[in-house]
Protein 1
Amino acid sequence: MESKKITKVRKATDLTPKELNVLRSTSKLSDKEIKQWHEVFDKDSFVKLYKELHPQHDEAASKALIDSIDTDHDGSINFNEFLFFTAANARSCSLDERLNVMFDLWDVTDDGQIDQNELAHLISAMYDRARIKDRQGENNPH
């Protein structure tokens, strides 16, 4: 009998225990507060919170930060982009904890591996961030 690989498809809106842990340790918010914020997260709520936390930053600095977080350059910040930014900049977490969260963001099947499609998606996101449009030939993410 042949065994089939069972994978869990992870939606971008799911909040994993590892992600929750990183946010808890970097924000000092409770699990309940993080989950509530996760449910209503959008670019406007991020900008509002950022301005409250950093009133000394002007609009240009805020826009530059938002542009650096918006990795797919669609004009919005989704929760995964925010989480990736938070994990990458979480000085209170170890490097291993930050890398584990980033890995989990790309391991959408939650099988502990990055398969070819997940890697292609990661490479495409890197191309988006670098604004590389040519994805033919040796630049093909696959």
Protein 2
Amino acid sequence: MSYMKGDLLSRTRKLVKGLAKAEPVWLKAMERVPPATFPRTDGKIKQISLPEDPYIKKFFKKHPESKYEDAIKISAFDPPPARIFGLRVLELKEQAVTEDEAMALADMEYRTEKKEKKKAYARLKQIARFQGKRAPPNPFPSAVKEIQAEERKYVRDRFFNPKILAIVKRMKEERASEIQERAAS
């Protein structure tokens, strides 16, 4: 039906009129109460922009590594550091601070917070060593390391999972039989 123009209702009417399709049960009800039609955008979708967006772009230019280290977690309640930076710059500008000074201050706050997080984790590891325990997982890992940690179990699983080992064995047998067939012909 992709070659036909119109919505579901008009397409179905055409098919029923042309006897290409039996009349569906829902057609009469849908003709009485047709679905709402939404205005078309003509391909011009307006981009949503927030007041802090220019500062977020400047933040990522200054700290490109932050895109990978401070991942945006959609389900998290805490905003990402870039958004905090942008909001802080706006807050400082409202207090009659110049834009350059506001950005410098927000940048300094970001760097000190990052250093404090690293120091706190180093202290946690040190305490764990003194107690003879394993170091705790990093509470502030980079996004790449988080993804690698999630995938690690699947990477190891391929060597020990009996189902995967059976598939590998079957694939090796098929390949060996194909090689023998080629050699025979």
